[in-house]
Amino acid sequence: MGRANKVVLAYSGGVDTTVCIPYLKNEWGVKEVITLAADLGQGDELDPIQKKALKYGAVESLVEDATESFVVDYAFPAIQANTLYENRYPLSTALARPLIAKLLVDAAEKYGADAVAHGCTAKGNDQVRFDLGIMALNPKLKVLAPAREWGMSREEAISYGEKFGLEFPVKKSSPFSIDRNLLGRSIEAGPLEDPMVEPPEEIFVMTKAIADTPDEPEYIIIGFEKGLPVSINGEKLAPVALITKLNDLAGKHGIGRIDMLENRVVGIKSREIYEAPALLVLIHAHRDLESLTLTGDVTQYKRGIEQSYGELIYQGLWYSPLKAALDGFIQQTQERVSGEVRIKLFKGNAVIVGRQSDNSIYAPDLATYGAEDEFDHKAAEGFIYIWGLPTRVWSQKTRGM
């Protein structure tokens, strides 16, 4: 493929993306490298990362605070869709990729770059998410992926960088690969590659071990408006503050850990450990509130939409036409999903113990078995006759009766 003159590089400050700077310039003839680090609430101090990029050859080092957009434009729609990939993973890491792709494209257009680049390898999901997101937003931009092509081990990449003056402080190397943002953490590699190995407690940061959690349950109430979380225990909170607070509340009780074998886009099975306390609790609560406010046929049909929605996000198709069409359906269903859900947090579990809504279509006078019962019991026999008529006819024909 043809190379580029000016490139915007997605930059994390790690070994691979740092080595990408001299590699792009010396091996692929890129004249100018602009780095872009995205602040998605991961808690890292990004000022040193910004200076590091300039020190090692970037002509511009951008830091974009996109935390609020991350929650409002990416996490909240996923919550409204009750999105769980393979019915378990709430896409806490995957949701960041289309946003970073958008930031790269916006920066490329602003600075007149003819390409963008990332440090993803050939075996992961992120290369697919970045490439497809960029392609959808600006198909004219070239996408460069040096780490996918250079064929260097980590040790070789470090040696290559040192030839160009890069310094990698000697420190105890963690065998784990970790990605973090406001929504959660993903942990893989090292001993975790053996599916029978129990995850060591040291890898967890957002969630406490069950043995260290409080011995008394804690009850919280989450308020929703049109499918969006807006309050905790009656206190209205801005989106980022709400996620932050709920991460602390749920994590304190050991809630939010996932240990799973998932099917990557490239066909590989991967053992992944996730922490996503707030996101899991919100999806659990939101789905329950829908059961109170949506009709049965909408709720049941939406489950299939939710599965497709999760697969699209996982597979890097956030900006696809199908995703946009599904957004229309999901948003239509959320008009009446307002109310409160009461949750008991205790020893790793978030148990829903109550829910209420002004839009509730639960009718106590029809559901009750008490004296207030208004259900027409006489109508049941005729209903069953009509409902079961196809089964009756089928049985008569097949059994010769």
UniProtKB/TrEMBL annotation:
One of the GO biological process terms: urea cycle
Family: Belongs to the argininosuccinate synthase family. Type 1 subfamily.
Annotated residues for binding of L-citrulline: Y89, N125, R129, S177, S186, E262, Y274
Span of domain Arginosuccinate synthase C-terminal: 176-394
Gene of this entry: argG
Lineage top rank: taxon: Bacteria
Stored Pfam families: Arginosuc_syn_C, Arginosuc_synth
Keywords linked to the UniProt accession: Amino-acid biosynthesis, Arginine biosynthesis, ATP-binding, Cytoplasm, Ligase, Nucleotide-binding
GO molecular function: argininosuccinate synthase activity; ATP binding
E.C. number: 6.3.4.5
Quaternary data: Homotetramer.
Enzyme class, broadest EC rank: ligase
Catalytic reaction list: L-citrulline + L-aspartate + ATP = 2-(N(omega)-L-arginino)succinate + AMP + diphosphate + H(+)
Descriptive protein name: Argininosuccinate synthase
Cellular component GO terms held in the UniProt record: cytoplasm
Coiled coil location: none
InterPro entries: Arginosuc_syn_C (IPR048268), Arginosuc_syn_N (IPR048267), Arginosuc_synth (IPR001518), Arginosuc_synth_CS (IPR018223), Arginosuc_synth_type_1_subfam (IPR023434), AS_cat/multimer_dom_body (IPR024074), Rossmann-like_a/b/a_fold (IPR014729)
SUPFAM superfamilies: Adenine nucleotide alpha hydrolases-like, Argininosuccinate synthetase, C-terminal domain
Main location: cytoplasm
Organism: Waterburya agarophytonicola KI4
Localization per record: Cytoplasm
